[in-house]
Amino acid sequence: IQIKGVNLPPPPTTPWIIMGASYGGALSAWAKHEYPDLVFAAIASSAPVEARYYFWEYFEPIRRGAPPHCRNSIINTVKYVDSVLFGKNAKKIQSLKARFGLPNVTHNDDFAAALIIPIWNWQSLAPNSVNQFTYFCEFFDKAKTEPDQITAYASYMTGYVKNLTCPDQDECFGTHNPRLPRYTDISLDNAARSWTWQLCYEFGFWQSAPPKGYPTLVSTLYTPEYSERQCRFYFPDSILPETPRIDYINKEFGGWNITDDNIFWINGQFDPWRDVTVNAVEAPKRVNTSASPDVVIQGGIHGWDEYWKQNITAPIVEVHDEVIASLRAWLKKFRATKP
């Protein structure tokens, strides 16, 4: 292998190190686990290594980490929305959809799913910065009562919809028509389709409303079945299993139980993917050792250690220093074993 004109012998002569965040973090850990003779070390950031079908916990770090007034406003609005949608009063439901700028979304579950759009932006928040989630929360700043909170949420959604080019709202927000462009676009550069295949075939990760009794940021109409139903539309002529091969994936690649040395695990305190990483609450208790460090960036979200220059926080700098120190120590041992 040549890098900038330097010849690098293959492993094990050269200590190859893999790093990545999110799915790339999982791939890094899996590569080290599956091919220890080829991969010397891995840095696995926000790595969702434990496949899961019902992934309602995705929204829990958002609920815990979002500004309290914003969080409570979302919860109150969703509670109201569900009361109308489950009330089965057609006129009230239609009025609700119109209030949120979505009068022509046919199916109630699609309408409920559309209201999650601003919440998805939490995952992409960068250190010391703002994005559409921050902008969304600002709509609730002056909303002191529940009716005001509902109005503020509706105002955000109305403005969002107006800025879209939607010949048909069901084309933009619907999921029930198998002829929708999102299902029929099989172009090779459609990365979203590739990831959807992996979800449908292997991982699941169906982000959903929580079990009854939990406060929720999303409608209870947003279920694993809502997402999985779409798999047959994306891949109508495929060999998809009835449900993703979650048990096989976790058994084959180790899931939470990966214990290999020379894997540096990094997660964010409020990363929505945290509950399918080795740092999940339900995961086997892991000891932070020099051979297999496991650190959590306080206040961090998704893949925050990937930021190296602008706006980084002190906890990120600390993690960077720990990563460099670990790699130096591991490489020192590697060199000591060579003649």
Structure at a glance:
The protein is an alpha/beta fold.
Describe this structure in words.
The protein is an alpha/beta fold and 339 residues long. The chain folds into 2 domains: 2-49 and 254-336, 3-Layer(aba) Sandwich (Rossmann fold), CATH 3.40.50.1820; 53-246, no CATH class. It has helices spanning 23-34, 60-65, 68-85, 90-99, 108-114, 117-120, 132-138, 146-162, 169-173, 181-184, 191-203, 224-228, 231-234, 246-253, 314-336, and strands at 2-3, 6-7, 17-21, 41-45, 52-55, 204-207, 263-268, 294-297. A 4-stranded parallel β-sheet has the order 3-4-7-8. β3, α1 and β4 form a beta-alpha-beta unit. The longest helix has 23 residues, at 314-336.
Secondary structure blueprint with pairings:
Layout: E1 2-3, E2 6-7, E3 17-21, H1 23-34, E4 41-45, E5 52-55, H2 60-65, H3 68-85, H4 90-99, H5 108-114, H6 117-120, H7 132-138, H8 146-162, H9 169-173, H10 181-184, H11 191-203, E6 204-207, H12 224-228, H13 231-234, H14 246-253, E7 263-268, E8 294-297, H15 314-336
Parallel strand pairs: 3-4, 4-7, 5-6, 7-8
Antiparallel strand pairs: 1-2
Helix pairs in contact: 3-8
Count the strands? 8
The major pleated sheet works out as: 4 strands, parallel
**Low-pLDDT runs:** none
Fraction of residues in H or I helices:
40-55%
Number of domains: 2
Please work out how many helical segments DSSP would assign: 15
Instruction: Report strand order across the widest sheet.
Output: 3-4-7-8
Shape: globular
Structural class: alpha/beta
Radius of gyration: 22 Å
Element pattern in H and E: EEEHEEHHHHHHHHHHEHHHEEH
Report the end-to-end length measured between terminal Cα atoms: 22 Å
